[in-house]
Design a protein that fits this description.
This protein is an alpha/beta fold. The protein is 59% helix and 9% strand. Helix 4 packs parallel to helix 7. It starts with a strand and ends with a helix.
Protein backbone atom coordinates (compact mmCIF):
# COMPACT_ATOMS: atom_id res chain seq x y z
CA UNK A 1 0.00 0.00 0.00
CA UNK A 2 1.26 3.47 -0.89
CA UNK A 3 0.67 6.35 1.50
CA UNK A 4 1.01 10.03 0.60
CA UNK A 5 1.83 12.30 3.55
CA UNK A 6 1.80 16.07 3.19
CA UNK A 7 5.05 17.34 4.68
CA UNK A 8 7.13 20.45 5.34
CA UNK A 9 10.35 18.70 4.31
CA UNK A 10 11.64 16.01 1.91
CA UNK A 11 12.22 13.12 4.32
CA UNK A 12 10.57 10.90 6.92
CA UNK A 13 11.66 13.17 9.78
CA UNK A 14 9.78 16.16 8.37
CA UNK A 15 6.71 17.48 10.12
CA UNK A 16 3.33 16.71 8.58
CA UNK A 17 2.09 19.68 6.54
CA UNK A 18 -0.76 21.63 8.16
CA UNK A 19 -2.69 21.97 4.87
CA UNK A 20 -2.91 19.41 2.09
CA UNK A 21 -2.87 21.88 -0.83
CA UNK A 22 -0.07 24.17 0.32
CA UNK A 23 2.35 21.67 1.88
CA UNK A 24 5.83 21.92 0.41
CA UNK A 25 6.22 18.18 -0.22
CA UNK A 26 4.38 14.92 -0.44
CA UNK A 27 6.23 11.92 0.93
CA UNK A 28 5.07 8.79 -0.91
CA UNK A 29 5.74 5.88 1.45
CA UNK A 30 5.53 2.15 0.84
CA UNK A 31 3.77 0.90 3.97
CA UNK A 32 5.47 -2.49 3.91
CA UNK A 33 9.09 -1.52 3.21
CA UNK A 34 9.04 2.15 4.35
CA UNK A 35 10.79 3.08 1.13
CA UNK A 36 9.78 6.62 0.22
CA UNK A 37 9.84 9.22 -2.53
CA UNK A 38 9.79 12.96 -1.79
CA UNK A 39 7.83 14.93 -4.39
CA UNK A 40 7.71 18.73 -4.39
CA UNK A 41 4.16 20.06 -4.38
CA UNK A 42 3.68 22.40 -7.39
CA UNK A 43 0.79 24.10 -5.60
CA UNK A 44 2.96 25.23 -2.67
CA UNK A 45 4.28 28.26 -4.58
CA UNK A 46 1.05 29.33 -6.26
CA UNK A 47 -1.86 31.46 -5.08
CA UNK A 48 -4.69 29.83 -6.98
CA UNK A 49 -5.83 26.23 -7.42
CA UNK A 50 -3.09 24.88 -5.15
CA UNK A 51 -5.44 22.15 -3.91
CA UNK A 52 -6.26 21.06 -7.45
CA UNK A 53 -2.58 20.72 -8.35
CA UNK A 54 -1.96 18.71 -5.20
CA UNK A 55 -4.90 16.42 -5.99
CA UNK A 56 -3.62 15.81 -9.53
CA UNK A 57 -0.14 15.02 -8.22
CA UNK A 58 -1.36 12.54 -5.61
CA UNK A 59 -3.68 10.79 -8.04
CA UNK A 60 -0.87 10.47 -10.59
CA UNK A 61 1.25 8.69 -7.96
CA UNK A 62 -1.45 6.01 -7.56
CA UNK A 63 -1.50 6.16 -3.77
CA UNK A 64 -4.07 4.41 -1.59
CA UNK A 65 -4.21 6.76 1.40
CA UNK A 66 -3.49 10.41 2.15
CA UNK A 67 -2.43 11.58 5.62
CA UNK A 68 -2.50 15.33 6.25
CA UNK A 69 -3.30 18.03 8.75
CA UNK A 70 -6.21 19.70 6.98
CA UNK A 71 -7.86 18.88 3.66
CA UNK A 72 -10.73 20.81 2.08
CA UNK A 73 -14.02 18.99 1.38
CA UNK A 74 -13.52 19.59 -2.35
CA UNK A 75 -10.09 17.94 -2.36
CA UNK A 76 -11.39 15.06 -0.22
CA UNK A 77 -14.22 14.55 -2.72
CA UNK A 78 -11.86 14.33 -5.70
CA UNK A 79 -9.49 11.98 -3.89
CA UNK A 80 -12.29 9.75 -2.61
CA UNK A 81 -13.86 9.45 -6.06
CA UNK A 82 -10.50 8.16 -7.29
CA UNK A 83 -10.43 5.50 -4.57
CA UNK A 84 -8.04 7.30 -2.21
CA UNK A 85 -8.71 7.26 1.53
CA UNK A 86 -8.13 10.61 3.29
CA UNK A 87 -7.27 10.88 6.99
CA UNK A 88 -7.00 14.51 8.15
CA UNK A 89 -6.20 16.02 11.52
CA UNK A 90 -2.90 14.17 11.95
CA UNK A 91 0.31 15.71 13.28
CA UNK A 92 3.85 14.64 14.10
CA UNK A 93 6.63 13.54 11.77
CA UNK A 94 5.98 11.59 8.59
CA UNK A 95 7.53 8.44 10.05
CA UNK A 96 5.43 8.72 13.22
CA UNK A 97 2.08 9.15 11.46
CA UNK A 98 2.81 6.28 9.06
CA UNK A 99 3.56 3.99 12.01
CA UNK A 100 0.37 5.15 13.75
CA UNK A 101 -1.58 4.47 10.57
CA UNK A 102 -0.13 0.95 10.31
CA UNK A 103 -1.24 0.29 13.91
CA UNK A 104 -4.75 1.57 13.15
CA UNK A 105 -4.46 4.51 15.52
CA UNK A 106 -5.42 7.12 12.93
CA UNK A 107 -8.90 5.79 12.37
CA UNK A 108 -9.94 7.81 15.41
CA UNK A 109 -9.76 11.60 15.22
CA UNK A 110 -7.25 13.14 17.67
CA UNK A 111 -8.61 14.90 20.72
CA UNK A 112 -11.70 12.73 21.30
CA UNK A 113 -10.54 11.91 24.82
CA UNK A 114 -10.23 15.58 25.76
CA UNK A 115 -13.00 17.63 27.27
CA UNK A 116 -14.86 19.88 24.80
CA UNK A 117 -13.45 23.03 26.46
CA UNK A 118 -9.85 21.82 26.29
CA UNK A 119 -10.24 20.61 22.73
CA UNK A 120 -11.72 23.91 21.62
CA UNK A 121 -8.86 25.85 23.21
CA UNK A 122 -6.28 23.73 21.43
CA UNK A 123 -8.00 24.17 18.09
CA UNK A 124 -8.22 27.96 18.54
CA UNK A 125 -4.53 28.29 19.43
CA UNK A 126 -3.43 26.08 16.57
CA UNK A 127 -5.61 27.96 14.11
CA UNK A 128 -4.30 31.33 15.33
CA UNK A 129 -0.65 30.29 15.08
CA UNK A 130 -1.21 28.82 11.63
CA UNK A 131 -3.08 31.92 10.42
CA UNK A 132 -0.24 34.22 11.55
CA UNK A 133 2.39 31.96 10.04
CA UNK A 134 0.46 31.61 6.80
CA UNK A 135 -0.01 35.39 6.52
CA UNK A 136 3.70 35.99 7.03
CA UNK A 137 4.61 33.35 4.45
CA UNK A 138 2.20 34.81 1.90
CA UNK A 139 3.66 38.28 2.39
CA UNK A 140 7.18 36.94 1.93
CA UNK A 141 6.10 35.10 -1.21
CA UNK A 142 4.43 38.24 -2.51
CA UNK A 143 7.58 40.37 -2.30
CA UNK A 144 9.32 38.72 -5.29
CA UNK A 145 6.11 39.10 -7.29
CA UNK A 146 5.91 42.82 -6.54
CA UNK A 147 9.59 43.22 -7.38
CA UNK A 148 9.07 41.29 -10.60
CA UNK A 149 6.14 43.51 -11.56
CA UNK A 150 8.26 46.66 -11.19
CA UNK A 151 11.12 45.13 -13.18
CA UNK A 152 8.71 43.81 -15.81
CA UNK A 153 7.30 47.28 -16.46
CA UNK A 154 10.82 48.65 -16.89
CA UNK A 155 11.90 45.86 -19.24
CA UNK A 156 8.74 46.12 -21.29
CA UNK A 157 9.14 49.88 -21.75
CA UNK A 158 12.83 49.44 -22.63
CA UNK A 159 12.60 46.63 -25.19
CA UNK A 160 9.09 46.96 -26.62
CA UNK A 161 8.81 50.07 -28.75
CA UNK A 162 5.52 51.31 -30.14
CA UNK A 163 6.84 50.79 -33.66
CA UNK A 164 7.70 47.14 -32.96
CA UNK A 165 4.29 46.43 -31.47
CA UNK A 166 2.55 48.19 -34.35
CA UNK A 167 4.33 45.92 -36.82
CA UNK A 168 2.96 42.85 -34.98
CA UNK A 169 -0.50 44.13 -34.12
CA UNK A 170 -1.82 45.75 -37.28
CA UNK A 171 -5.28 46.61 -35.99
CA UNK A 172 -7.00 43.72 -37.73
CA UNK A 173 -9.38 42.06 -35.24
CA UNK A 174 -8.71 38.50 -36.39
CA UNK A 175 -4.91 38.64 -36.54
CA UNK A 176 -4.58 40.77 -33.40
CA UNK A 177 -6.71 38.35 -31.40
CA UNK A 178 -4.70 35.40 -32.75
CA UNK A 179 -1.32 36.99 -31.96
CA UNK A 180 -2.51 37.96 -28.48
CA UNK A 181 -3.60 34.40 -27.75
CA UNK A 182 -0.28 33.05 -29.07
CA UNK A 183 1.74 35.34 -26.80
CA UNK A 184 -0.34 34.38 -23.79
CA UNK A 185 0.09 30.67 -24.58
CA UNK A 186 3.87 30.94 -24.76
CA UNK A 187 4.54 33.18 -21.77
CA UNK A 188 4.66 31.69 -18.29
CA UNK A 189 4.58 33.14 -14.80
CA UNK A 190 2.22 34.54 -12.24
CA UNK A 191 -1.12 35.71 -13.75
CA UNK A 192 -0.42 39.15 -12.27
CA UNK A 193 2.28 39.59 -14.92
CA UNK A 194 -0.30 39.22 -17.67
CA UNK A 195 -2.19 42.23 -16.29
CA UNK A 196 0.98 44.32 -16.36
CA UNK A 197 1.80 43.40 -19.95
CA UNK A 198 -1.84 43.85 -20.98
CA UNK A 199 -1.93 47.31 -19.42
CA UNK A 200 1.23 48.37 -21.24
CA UNK A 201 -0.14 47.04 -24.53
CA UNK A 202 -3.31 49.08 -24.07
CA UNK A 203 -1.21 52.15 -23.30
CA UNK A 204 0.61 51.62 -26.62
CA UNK A 205 -2.69 51.53 -28.49
CA UNK A 206 -2.97 47.78 -29.01
CA UNK A 207 -6.57 46.62 -29.48
CA UNK A 208 -8.62 45.28 -26.59
CA UNK A 209 -9.21 42.09 -28.61
CA UNK A 210 -5.50 41.20 -28.51
CA UNK A 211 -5.13 42.17 -24.85
CA UNK A 212 -8.16 40.13 -23.76
CA UNK A 213 -7.00 37.07 -25.70
CA UNK A 214 -3.54 37.36 -24.12
CA UNK A 215 -4.92 37.43 -20.57
CA UNK A 216 -7.27 34.48 -21.15
CA UNK A 217 -4.70 32.25 -22.86
CA UNK A 218 -2.05 33.18 -20.25
CA UNK A 219 -4.06 31.54 -17.45
CA UNK A 220 -5.63 28.67 -19.44
CA UNK A 221 -2.97 27.56 -21.94
CA UNK A 222 0.52 26.52 -20.86
CA UNK A 223 2.93 25.40 -23.56
CA UNK A 224 5.92 25.61 -21.21
CA UNK A 225 4.14 23.46 -18.60
CA UNK A 226 2.82 21.05 -21.22
CA UNK A 227 5.43 18.28 -20.56
CA UNK A 228 4.55 18.27 -16.85
CA UNK A 229 0.83 18.23 -17.62
CA UNK A 230 1.31 15.30 -20.01
CA UNK A 231 3.17 13.39 -17.30
CA UNK A 232 0.49 14.03 -14.68
CA UNK A 233 -2.70 13.77 -16.74
CA UNK A 234 -1.77 11.95 -19.93
CA UNK A 235 -0.82 13.11 -23.43
CA UNK A 236 -4.29 13.01 -24.95
CA UNK A 237 -5.96 14.98 -22.17
CA UNK A 238 -3.21 17.61 -22.01
CA UNK A 239 -3.16 18.21 -25.77
CA UNK A 240 -6.94 18.34 -26.09
CA UNK A 241 -7.30 20.64 -23.07
CA UNK A 242 -4.70 23.11 -24.31
CA UNK A 243 -6.08 23.10 -27.85
CA UNK A 244 -9.65 23.68 -26.68
CA UNK A 245 -8.50 26.37 -24.22
CA UNK A 246 -6.61 28.19 -27.00
CA UNK A 247 -9.63 28.11 -29.32
CA UNK A 248 -11.95 29.28 -26.54
CA UNK A 249 -9.60 32.15 -25.67
CA UNK A 250 -10.17 33.54 -29.17
CA UNK A 251 -13.94 33.16 -28.96
CA UNK A 252 -14.21 34.54 -25.43
CA UNK A 253 -11.98 37.51 -26.24
CA UNK A 254 -14.11 38.54 -29.22
CA UNK A 255 -17.35 37.97 -27.31
CA UNK A 256 -16.12 39.90 -24.26
CA UNK A 257 -15.05 42.95 -26.23
CA UNK A 258 -18.30 42.87 -28.23
CA UNK A 259 -20.32 42.87 -25.01
CA UNK A 260 -18.21 45.71 -23.58
CA UNK A 261 -18.81 47.76 -26.73
CA UNK A 262 -22.56 47.13 -26.52
CA UNK A 263 -22.74 48.09 -22.86
CA UNK A 264 -20.57 51.13 -23.45
CA UNK A 265 -22.92 52.26 -26.20
Amino acid sequence: MKIAVSADGPDLNAKVGFRFGSSKYFIIVDQDTMDFEAVANPGASTYQASGVQAVVLVISKKVDTVLTGHCSPTAIGHLTVNGIQVLAGVDGTVAEVVERFKKGELQRQPGVESTPETSANKIDKAALVHALRNSANQFIRLLPVLTGVVLLIGLFNSFMSKELLSSVFSGNISTDTLFGACLGSIFAGNPINSYIIAGELLAYGISLFAVTALIISWVTVGLIQLPAEITALGRRFALVRNTVSFALSLVIAIFTVAVINIIGG
